[in-house]
Amino acid sequence: MSFVAEVEVRFRDHDSFGHVNNAVYATYCEQARVRFFEEVLGTPLSDPHIVVAHLELDYRAPIEGVGTVEVAVEAGEPGGKSFPISYTLSYDGEVVATGETVQVAMDDEGRPTRVPDQWREAIADQP
């Protein structure tokens, strides 16, 4: 089971073709990731000790109209200093995109450091 965040699809997200612009899908993932960090890992994503080192998205269908996109978020097993998060974006019951980011834990000097034990435990406890 994944953590699911509902994200508003706004009129301004659309391009001249009437579809949500491809770059906005990354923003939907980011909004879901913020909630995941706050609600599951107990850490605000504004914490400067977290950076995204990699992002990939695969588009399956356009989002047309306004409403809500559901973003399922699931963290993978942490390595030493990083861990992946996978995303499944659904609109009107249809999967419209999938993606993944890799988060890197950073120390106070801005260097990669070990993923905190608190995060490791929360990730292991995901349903």
Automatic annotation (TrEMBL):
The terms under GO molecular function for this entry are:
hydrolase activity
Q: Does the keyword Zinc apply?
A: no
Q: What class of enzyme is it?
A: hydrolase
- What's in the keyword line of the UniProt record? Hydrolase
Q: Where is the signal peptide?
A: none
Q: Which Gene3D superfamilies match?
A: Hotdog Thioesterase (3.10.129.10)
Q: Which InterPro entries match?
A: 4-hydroxybenzoyl-CoA_TE, HotDog_dom_sf
A Pfam short name: 4HBT_2
Q: What is its EC number?
A: 3.1.2.-
- Family that this chain belongs to: Belongs to the 4-hydroxybenzoyl-CoA thioesterase family.
Q: What is this protein called?
A: Acyl-CoA thioesterase
Biological classification of the source: Archaea, Methanobacteriati, Methanobacteriota, Stenosarchaea group, Halobacteria
